[in-house]
Design goal:
Shape: elongated
Number of strands: 5
Number of domains: 2
Strand order of the largest sheet: 2-1-3-4-5
Strand content: 5-15%
Distance between the termini: 92 Å
CATH architecture of the largest domain: 3-Layer(aba) Sandwich
Number of helices: 8
Structural class: alpha/beta
Largest sheet: 5 strands, parallel
Length: 212
């Protein structure tokens, strides 16, 4: 909530300077700010990147839209009438929302910025901000979510690989022999079985040859 929003560089939105003018098919954005001027600015700016853009002037209005549509990105003012943007962000994350969230405010301080990041915002912009700063924040948020998804897929692949290796090793003859020794305790039994296996291999290698 701030009167500074009318100083945001609106002409760049109209001219397309420095922005991606192609909407991203299938992606939608929700802009939440109690000032009509800022909502109009965010709507026109986001329409150059998203196939669908909705705006709301309060958390209550935003929640009604959020319950009816899937939004990949939320641009959210911290200071709103009634419930604050920070409170709503906490509720969204607790409810399992994993989309990109950019918080904006006209009264930034260190505590607010830290609270925003802890609540799950990917970035934090102070009004007035340039449109290229908004694009940078959106791109960085998308990159963070992409890396998060890739990391999840990688961890799952590694976990599956480890499980497969455990199955293969678990069915090997030596492991079956170790299982039979399950009633015996500690590493002594392991070394006893391993020693018999190694001894068997040494005896089965045949006589040594003289290389002289």
């Amino acid at each position: 909530m701030t009167s500074q929003s009318n100083t945001v560089d609106l002409p760049k939105v109209a001219t397309g300077q420095g922005i991606d003018a192609q909407p991203r098919k299938g992606l939608s954005a929700l802009a939440v700010d109690d000032e009509p001027g800022m909502r109009h600015f965010l709507e026109k700016a986001l329409e150059t990147r998203f196939a669908r853009v909705d705006t709301a002037g309060s958390v209550e209005m935003a929640q009604a839209l959020f319950d009816s549509h899937d939004y990949s990105t939320v641009v959210l003012d911290v200071s709103l009438p009634g419930k604050s943007g920070l409170q709503w962000l906490n509720e969204l994350r607790q409810g399992g929302y994993e989309g990109d969230v950019i918080l904006i405010t006209g009264y930034a301080d260190m505590d607010t910025a830290i609270g925003a990041l802890r609540a799950g915002a990917q970035d934090f912009l102070q009004k007035p901000f340039r449109i290229d700063q908004l694009w940078y924040a959106l791109d960085r948020a998308a990159d963070q979510n992409r890396l998060k998804r890739e990391n999840f897929v990688l961890k799952r692949a590694v976990s599956n690989l480890q499980q497969n290796e455990q199955v293969m090793v678990g069915e090997s003859p030596i492991v079956r022999q170790l299982r039979k020794a399950g009633g015996q305790s500690g590493s002594n039994r392991f070394h006893s079985v391993a020693h018999r296996r190694v001894g068997f291999r040494k005896r089965s290698t045949g006589p040594a040859r003289c290389m002289a």
